[in-house]
Amino acid sequence: MLLKQPVSPKDSLRRTGLLLFMILTRLAVTQAEEITYAERLGWPPGTKVVIFHVDDAGMSHNSNMGTIKAVEEGIATSLSIMMPCSWVPEYAAYLKAHPHIDAGVHLTLTSEWKNYRWGPIAGKPAVPGLTDTDGYLWHNVSDVVAHATADEVETEIRAQIDKALSMGIVPTHLDAHMGTCFHPQFIDRYVKVGIEKKIPVLIFGGHMQHIGNEAGPLRALVLSIAQRVWQAGLPVIDDLVTKPTRAKDYEQRKAELIKLLREMKPGITQIIVHCTVQTEVFSHISGSGPNREAELRLMTDPDIKAFIESEGIVLTTWRELKKRRALTQTPSSVALNDNSSNHK
N or C: which end of the chain has fewer CB within 10 A? Predict the structure, then answer.
């Protein structure tokens, strides 16, 4: 017969804490699967709500033109700006003339291209761990993780937001270029600044139909952070699609996007695209021009727009999500459905 070893009060407390964490995580997952954030923000059960989001505004003139076309002539509803890049002034001027545009800050902690680079807004002396030997931001996320501290990342996040505000850009939301801010080492600072400044942050806490595989073992951490963001009074989305199409042929790309939209679960899903008006100049920046041009074509394709309308998919913005989140905390939340609108 085996004798049970006595359990110390410290071990017992540790086990109880672990069990409580597992229960709460399971409850959070179950709740997220049962009630979408679209429902929590006032849309009827079963509603598919989509943000078509254009990344990388301000990176180049081509990027600016592609972003403008995707929003003005297409189904794109939101975008974010890379504040360290050289063509931000052009897009900032556009926003002053079009203040209704849903524009966030694309928090940029990397500079990935070979011949077109940018450095931190805060300056190398303030954030030395964010810069390479040439004084530019690191090429890769792994280099940022290896060299930068969380304090330096927070300093640069604040500097980029301050730069946007100084240029007259009032961010509707924050997100992360190349996902650097989502690394476990930095995500707390990303969320902390958003909550402090009352700026919505891109965070997903619902069914995660598509982003779930990318989240992997960090799923529980992401869910807990999403709950923290929600409790702070900011909106949360259900899912994120980082690469909506993969085919080289345009018609196959279109079929992929339609399939994605048809099979998408109800809830709020952000679909990320990169839109560029392709010229010879952009080819000297990146070889991604053809893909970006194809995504711009998708955003302005009348067949895609018609499918969205036929399926009853609602297009929204981060500005509307923030407004709806504020309303859910007041008696006026009963008017949410009456004020719902499709943005395209």
Answer: N
Arithmetic mean of pLDDT over the chain: 91
CB 264 within 8 A of CB 48: yes
Tally the residues of the chain. Answer: 344
CATH superfamily of the domain spanning 41-339:
Glycoside hydrolase/deacetylase (3.20.20.370)
Residue, of 49 and 338, whose pLDDT is higher: 49
**Domains of the chain: which residue ranges?**
41-339
Closest CA to 223 of 9, 19, 29: 29
Average pLDDT of the residues in 266-290: 95
DSSP H stretches of helix in the chain: 9-34, 37-40, 61-72, 88-97, 141-147, 150-166, 187-197, 212-215, 219-231, 250-263, 289-299, 302-311, 318-327, 336-339
Q: Do residues 197 and 228 make contact, with C-beta atoms less than 8 angstroms apart?
A: no
Q: pTM of this prediction?
A: 0.88
As given in the structure block, the two tokens for residue 130 are 């964010």
Residue from 233, 299, 314, 241 nearest 43 by CA: 314
Q: Could you tell me which of 201, 243, 242 has the C-alpha nearest to residue 222?
A: 201
The single residue listed with the structure tokens 């924050």 is: 174
What average pLDDT does the segment 203-230 reach? 96
